[in-house]
Structure formats: C-alpha cells, structure tokens
Task: structure prediction
Amino acid sequence: MKYSRSEENYLKAIFHLQQAGSRGVSTNDIAEAMETKASSVTDMIKKLAAKDLVNYVKYQGVSLTESGRSTAIMVIRKHRLWEVFLVNKLDFPWDKVHDIAEQLEHIKSEELVTKLEAFLDYPSVDPHGDPIPDQHGNFKQTQKRLLVKCDLNEKYLCVGVKDSSSEFLRFLDKKHINIGSNITVLSKEEFDDSMQIQVDDQKHFISKKIAENIYVSAQ
Amino acid sequence: MKYSRSEENYLKAIFHLQQAGSRGVSTNDIAEAMETKASSVTDMIKKLAAKDLVNYVKYQGVSLTESGRSTAIMVIRKHRLWEVFLVNKLDFPWDKVHDIAEQLEHIKSEELVTKLEAFLDYPSVDPHGDPIPDQHGNFKQTQKRLLVKCDLNEKYLCVGVKDSSSEFLRFLDKKHINIGSNITVLSKEEFDDSMQIQVDDQKHFISKKIAENIYVSAQ
DNA sequence: CTTTTTATTTAGCTTTGCCTAAAAATTGTT
DNA sequence: AACAATTTTTAGGCAAAGCTAAATAAAAAG
Result:
C-alpha cells in the first residue's frame, strides 16, 4: 500500500509528537509542527483515519494505529539512512542534510532502501545520533538524557542533539562537539544553569540553552 | 526558478521528442509519451508557454525555449547521474534503475547533484550509454548508429541501447552484450535483416528487431 | 455555573493536474 | 473545392491539499 508525500509527512509529524508527549496528539500541535493551518490538519486527519492510519475521535486528538506507526517508522528509516549517505559518502556537513533528506525519504522503492542500507554498512544511528530503524521497524531508543540534567564530574558520551538547526550544529562544530565526544560537567552555575564542561581535551562554558539541546548517555 | 515535478516531466518528454524528430512536437506525441490525454497536454503546454519554457502556437505544436531546454537537460543530467549511482554503487542491474531514477531526478538541490557527480567520478555516460550533461548542460552527442545499419566485418563498439525495457536489457545480459563490448557483423541475411555477429569472443545470431535497438560507434 | 477564551471543525474557495465530451481547426481524400 | 477524418482545443468536472472565515465544542476563568 502506498501513501502520498503529504500523508507520509503527517504520519511522521504525529509520530514525533507522540514520542515527545505521551498524550494523544492535538490538531494544533500537528499544525504547528507542519507549519500549516489547523483546518488543513483536520482535513488530513480524516483521510488518515479513513485509511486506518490514525485513531481519531473528534475534538480529542489522534494517535497512530499499528499501521500508521510502522509507515511513519519506515519513512524515518529512509530519512536517516539518506542523511548518513549525504554526510558519509557525499561529504555534506551535518547541518545541511535535513532538507535534502526530507525529499529523499519519499522515494518509493523497498529495494533501494535495502541496497542503500547495505552500501552504508548497516549504520545504527544517523549523523545527529538518532537511531535508524531496521527493516522490521525495530530500533533501540538509547536511554539518552539532556546535558542540562547531568551530574557533575561524571563521564558522558555525546549521542545526539535535540535542536537540528544549522545555527546550533555550526556552534557545536566550532566547539568541536560531535557525536561520540566525551563530555564531563566540571561545574554548574545555579543562577542561570550555565556550566563549564570538558569536551575531549578542551574546556568550554556553555549556557543553559546549549545544555538543553545536547543528548548524552552515561559511559 | 523552480518547476513542479509534472512540469519537469513534460519538458523532459518534449526534449526527447524533439531529439527524435526534428519537427515541432505535436500535442498527441506528447500525450502518448506521457501516457496521458491530449487535453491534459494542451493545459500543461499553456502553463509552460506562460512561463516561457516552450514556444507555442495553437494547433502547431511546441518547441522548447532556451530556458525550457536547459531545464530539461538538467533533469536528464540528474536522471543519468542517479542511474550511475544505482548501478555502480548500489549494484542494481541496469534494467531496474529507470523507475527509481525517475523519482530521484526531481530532488531539488544543486549541491546534491554537484557532490553526487564528484562522488561518482564525473561519469560521461549512464549505464545505457547515454551521455551525461555537465553542470552547464553541455554534452557531446556521440555519433552512434544502429547496429542494423552497420557494415560487414568492421569493428564497432557497443555504446548504448534504444529500447531500455527490462526484457531487452536482460536479453543483452544473457548474450553478454554490454556497453563497451566489441561487436562485428559477420554476415547479414537480406531476407529478414537478421545477422550473425561477433561479441568480444562469442558469436550470436540476432534478429532485425534486436539489431534495431543496439547503438554502436566505429572504432 | 455562567461566561470567556481557546481549540477544533465545518463550509466554501483556490490551485494543480488530470479527465470526458463537445467544438473547432487542420489535414487528407476524392 | 467539398467532404471526411484526424488532431487540437475548449468547456466543465473531479480529487488532492491547502487556505480563510464562521460555527461549534471544550477548557479555563470568574
């Protein structure tokens, strides 16, 4: 069964919103995420519900059905595989790949995804540290946490970012903070939650806003 | 300036038709090539004319403007580069890449094409032997000719195919006829234009229909 | 427990790209 | 030249995906 580009984008957005908050996803949230109007969202939701991709009760938001969830995951799988291709093979900087992957993720061909994945050597995460689902849709949610909530003097591994904007990613590049960097929080300012951190062998001061957008895992 | 997928497909079809016959391209020809109806073609032609992509006089067919031609060539460039990627990097057989390349050719990103081309090492032809335009739209039309029109006992180089259907390409694979194979016409049957040919170190009998779909160049 | 605010849905309109059926122009044939 | 056949265009409609504005439901506030 095949879905339109727009349907796939809605499913993806709903999936991401569902991951964030555990509640049913509201029309307005979807509208904001997709940069569209609530009325357009209602229209599309009805179509998705008719195709059994979402559970929908008027005025009560939506949740993905099994079928909707797996469709969303397959789109995300493609998106992340293409991001790996763009960064690892074509040498794109990691902050420039999102828009292109947004287009590539809608290419329809099972075989293409399978062969691309093999060509890339079965990567488990994309350039931003997000896990890549396998062909059955399975992926392990790394138990990552935001740097802002980390303990002092523990060694962490940078595993991903929350904000994927070019501005933020370029900031990280400038500070040599990459996926895989070792990070330790050396001190924390109670007043504004800014902190001094050690990244591999360099020390930096970063604001709360930065620390809120870096994911790390204990190591 | 950006054009829709549909507009790009029309421009591409018109370009190919224009290459084939030198006359202005007719509405019906476009409709047949695009597997759509003549009335739809008229609609689209008007839009393309309004955007100065084609020259259009009612009832007299169309021809591409400079802008239309270069847009078409850029789509063809992308199509052929992606075909090379699919065959050389992802190991697709050459008869399976067309449909996927039809999708990939519409991905919008100058940078992607540039980087893809470099990654593929600036190929000059696609897997079917068709030339790949450079970033300025230049490409040399190889002075190829159909095998059916070749002289006896001359050495030729297989440079492309006219028919790109899976059936035909698989036939060629079976006979080990590839782009780059050496071909010599050993004998020709006047009655039905069938011929005996030497392909590298193998001999085959082929019908007129086969010989009409293989392009060679003198060597 | 009303009232106000906010969220959601409905109604109706727009554009793109396609369709069918009918009209008009062109081309081919006596 | 006049009729027939073919090609092309027009007219009117449809589905997808979006929009604005108005109506309605739910949530928040008094």
